[in-house]
Amino acid sequence: MGDSISAYQDCQPDATVQYHSHSGALGAAELDEYLSQCSIRVGVHTGKLIANDYFYEKPDVQLRKPKEADKHSELEIYEQSSGFSEPDHGQALAKNRLEYHQLTSRILVGDGNYTSLAPGHKFEIQQHPNASVNQLHTVLELQQKGTQTQVLVHGESNDEGTNFETNFVAVLSEQTIRPAPKPKPVALPQTATVVGPDGESYYIDKMGRVKVRFHWDRQCEENECSCWIRVSESYAGSDHGSQFPPLINDSVIVSFIHGDPDRPIITGRVYDGNQTPPIKPDQMVRNVIQTPYGHQVLIDDKNACISLTTAGGDQLLMTDGWKEDGNMVRLTSSDGHAFSAGEGDNLKGITLVTKAGHTVSMIDDPSPKISVVDKGEQLKIDLDCDGKSITIDNADSGSVNIQCSNGKIVISGKTVEINGQSGIDMTSNSHISMSAGTIQIKGDQKVEIEGGMELKAKAGTNFKAESGATMSIEGGATTKVQGGALTEVKGALVKIN
């Protein structure tokens, strides 16, 4: 047998046989071998076959390959997942499969006592009344039967006790004999262990594939047990998707595409006695994604929250429906800095807290305000949005400084009030100016106005200095009272010394 007609040899010892129309059992005395029955059977078979497949390492390569016969091309067979990864292989496969389907479109069926027939060998029929039978054929199927009714004694013969019959199916010798496609055994899902080099946690290639050791494998090298196996992910695409490659020693479920043992794919991961879940039985209603390095995404339905935590301790917490904090988002660094935003009984706004305890709050309700408070609550700045006021409070013994080195400080309002419990000091290296429609300076006990070199008081029209009891005008050396037109000194008693 071979995969080309050139491999088919002639029947031996005689490749030619005569056809005789009579039939019946043949005795050993009959020296001539012949065929007593011959008939041609013709059927309508497919005239076109398309073999197709998909190779994930070269997804853009078109593997679909058609092959057509001389007739009946409208009767098409389409075979998907034919088991090839190269276009040339697919073309040859389509040709072979079509030749198999075409093989029995014309067959020759016969019987006789011809003993030279052998499967895969050629013979020629002669003297058949149908000229199309008198051609060279290749044996496709063969059944032979011989009988001997009794044991012969040496030197004796029994022509009536020995018979030979043959039944055959043959095709034209120019047809290539192709065997029926043999289906691969169907592989069912099974578990395996991810393997890799000693001392490594990950062992994956550029396509995210891993190698495994099946539990039945007795000859496995620890890191070379299988081909590279693709891993099913929840989301995958060009430069996007999710990827959680199995680690060495993880237990996985291996399935097989179309049940083909040569096309494994990891479709799941499972825990076992050594690889236990991070969520314990007493922590149910919690879902977690946790890496071996400690990064964690926790979805907690019991406490209505989602948290993202790094191995170093940084955390993003999102809560939903807690009465105290309501719907809240809290970002906390590993060293204690925190940002909170929420809507609940305790918090209706945004709060920033440093590691040392300093706080900035922006509150919406019940009283909208913005506050900056130091860790000891001694220094406070409050912006009361409803009361439209700004309060700067230093409860300690320190001071509150407002400084502008080169510009100007403006304090403006309908009414400006400056109040000092012990005193108010106003100092300028140059001058101090006060200007208003009316300026009133009042001291409950005493008012002192002093000029280091000169004190000058001037009124555009009238100048009046008045005392309830005594008024003294005194000059250390000279006192001068002068009027440009008239000077009047008047009293019940005037004393000039």
UniProtKB/TrEMBL annotation:
Source organism superkingdom: Bacteria
InterPro entries in UniProt: Gp5/Vgr_OB, T6SS_RhsGE_Vgr_subset, T6SS_Vgr_RhsGE, Vgr_OB-fold_dom_sf
Boundaries of every Gp5/Type VI secretion system Vgr protein OB-fold domain copy: 205-271
First and last residue of the signal peptide: none
NCBIfam families documented for this protein: vgr_GE (TIGR01646), VI_Rhs_Vgr (TIGR03361)
The family this protein is said to belong to: Belongs to the VgrG protein family.
Entry protein name: Gp5/Type VI secretion system Vgr protein OB-fold domain-containing protein
